[in-house]
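Protein Record: Sequence and Backbone Structure Tokens
======================================================
Scope: a single protein chain, as residues and as a discrete description of its fold.
Tokens: labelled as protein backbone structure tokens, with as many entries as the chain has residues.
Position: the record begins directly beneath this header, with no further notes in between.
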Amino acid sequence: MSDTAQLKVTVAYATPNQQELIELTLPRGASIDDAIALADIQTKHPDVDFASLEKGIWYEKKPGTTVLKDGDRVEIYRPLIADAKEARRRRAERRRND
């Protein structure tokens, strides 16, 4: 297979304590779901239901069937622990009380 028939992507997944970046070479026409399956992230995190999590490319949510381009960063988004607006409100309130 020639280099023009392949693409290089990164699969990114973060836990509260660690970020994983997995570099992959895939055939052209591969999808987000293909990259996640090849990254074998489910084996590393068996307690996570990756099929139910949102996915995207470079900070933009996309369906798992989205075809990848060379250099894409596939991201797996886990649910937020806290609402960002609520967290900012609590910080501001603490500052007012200090």
